[in-house]
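In the design runs reported in the main text, the only information available to the sequence generator was the tokenized backbone. The following block is the verbatim input for one such run; it is reproduced so that readers can re-run the procedure and compare outputs position by position.
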């Protein structure tokens, strides 16, 4: 599993992968943060395709071409706005990751990169979001051959250590536990 998922620090719009995931809004329109950066880097044709899709509900994802990006496709995942954690935010965020991975598998995509969905202007606490992302990705990869590689793209200095720790903890949880009293 460790070879299939990794944390990378940098601008997700520069990655040459099969698909990058956009932390999208329900209208699939250019916004701030990663969404605005992806729309700007992909070019005007992306907006036209997004308008034809007619939006996307929170917790789901839609696929478009990558246009001027190095990535062939963009998966637009609509995460929840953080409302304190008692409005189903965790389930909706988990659903974003699952839907994105399902789209990647359905389209035969081998490599996919995720930003930290909902952690920007939507206010989802980054550490909590990182644990949800890692949990869902590991669970999905455990049952599917595709995608072969998942990149967790950390844009800022604050997100890289949190994503890295969440990944280490998620992978550690996969290791078999020794019975109490067993010799090392």
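Verbatim output:
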């Amino acid at each position: 599993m460790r070879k299939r998922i990794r944390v990378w620090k940098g601008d997700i719009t520069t990655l040459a992968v099969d698909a990058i995931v956009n932390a999208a809004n329900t209208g699939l329109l250019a916004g701030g943060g990663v969404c605005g950066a992806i729309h700007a880097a992909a070019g005007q044709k992306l907006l036209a395709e997004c308008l034809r899709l007619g939006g996307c509900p929170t917790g789901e994802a839609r696929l478009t071409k990558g246009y001027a990006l190095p990535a062939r496709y963009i998966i637009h995942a609509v995460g929840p706005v953080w409302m304190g954690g008692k409005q189903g935010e965790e389930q909706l965020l988990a659903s974003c990751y699952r839907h994105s991975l399902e789209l990647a598998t359905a389209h035969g995509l081998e490599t996919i990169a995720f930003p930290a969905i909902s952690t920007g202007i939507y206010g989802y606490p980054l550490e909590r979001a990182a644990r949800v992302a890692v949990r869902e990705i590991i669970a999905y990869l455990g049952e599917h051959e595709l995608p072969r590689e998942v990149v967790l793209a950390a844009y800022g200095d604050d997100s890289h250590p949190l994503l890295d720790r969440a990944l280490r903890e998620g992978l550690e949880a996969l290791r078999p536990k020794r019975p109490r009293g067993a010799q090392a």
